[in-house]
């Protein structure tokens, strides 16, 4: 366990322990102004020994400009590929457009720029908006031969739409439950009991009765986390909120059980909206909450900062987000994939080389050292051995990789609105609305938006 110093400016903590970093339910990362630097060190990119990934000499000579779109806080990752490509292909310019604050805004930007006949070659796509890239933005199919032998094939399905590989997963995260061990111990709570929602409620009741004047639990719902947590809970009993045919499934017994847990959580006190500026402030600085929901991607910077504080503050720990009683870990993934949008053959070849350069193990490792995404490459994992020796608390989350579940990717003309709409329904449930009626309304709304 490590300690979290109390008197630290929020801006500093938000940069080091970003609760929403490249999140999942709606693939909405934290603000790029919060200091997230996914490649804090210089990283070596390249495509050596990758079959079919290098552009032909003819295309390399012909293409003079590549244009890549990313969200603001992935700008440094893109720069690694830019440096490699421009060094390897003298005369080539790689333009990086990284002004969009999140993946939804990036889709809107891409749509507008394509309509204006702007060149678009490579883009970062949140998992849940991949269907838009496949069906509306012209994402090209990518051959598995492009992947290094060390790439973790268990990640590949996260980049598929309708059986087509339209993206290569680059950064993957899941939800976790962070806790203040000092508060838990005073209440007689063993963190090992936090594996199920029943265990969490029992712990919350003990904390409430312990006289410590602290809110037992806080589950932030903003930035589309509401959908993510509801889906993660329902998934643990085998019924994610999107069925195999792509239809909404919010009227299942599993969704109802998940919603009732969230309703109970809401009775312990006001739940945060913004995961960072509210949730983190209450948990990490004001000590107002004993447990809070975070993402795996939030832990690396936080643990580094916490360890630097020595004996001051409180001991902090984290466990995989709990399952419903009788369930098993089937965490819904968050994160993004790299896509190729070029249609010209030579532009496509060069764009593909850029994508593969960004999947170089050293680039991936540099990203994970800054934001603790799950590793997507075994060579990356080898490079991270010193990192995991420094932060062994992160290793258990890597064991979740075999059980990852793809996030929902809602179809329909208005499917992109659904993550926010469902998160709003979760807020209603957590603020006292009738659970059954609200889920009925959520199912109806989901069916309308995905028509």
Element layout with pairings:
Elements: E1 2-4, H1 10-16, H2 57-62, E2 65-71, H3 75-88, E3 93-100, H4 103-115, E4 122-126, H5 130-135, E5 160-161, E6 164-165, E7 168-173, E8 175-180, H6 181-186, H7 197-209, E9 215-218, H8 225-235, H9 253-266, H10 275-285, E10 289-295, H11 299-308, E11 314-320, E12 334-340, H12 345-358, H13 361-370, H14 378-383, H15 385-390, H16 395-398, H17 418-430, H18 435-449
Parallel strand pairs: 2-3, 2-4, 9-10
Antiparallel strand pairs: 1-11, 4-12, 5-6, 7-12, 8-10, 8-11
Helix pairs in contact: 3-12, 8-9, 8-17, 17-18
* Percent of residues in β-strands: 5-15%
Give the strand order of the largest sheet, numbering strands 1, 2, ... along the chain. 1-11-8-10-9
Mean pLDDT: 87
Order of helices and strands: EHHEHEHEHEEEEHHEHHHEHEEHHHHHHH
* Biggest sheet character: 5 strands, mixed
> What number of structural domains do the residues give?
2
Distance between the termini: 48 Å
What do we call the CATH homologous superfamily of the largest domain?
Periplasmic binding protein-like II
- The structure class reads alpha/beta
Q: What is the second-level CATH architecture of the largest domain?
A: 3-Layer(aba) Sandwich
CATH C-level class of the largest domain: Alpha Beta
In DSSP terms (H or I, runs of 4 or more residues), the helix count works out at 18
Tell me how many strands there are: 12
Alpha-carbon Rg, integer: 22 Å
Walk me through this protein's architecture:
There is one protein chain. The chain is built from 18 helices and 12 strands. The protein has 451 residues and is of the alpha/beta class. It has a 5-stranded mixed sheet with strand order 1-11-8-10-9. The longest helix is centred in the last third of the chain and has 15 residues. Keywords: Signal. This is ABC transporter substrate-binding protein. It comes from Parafrankia soli.
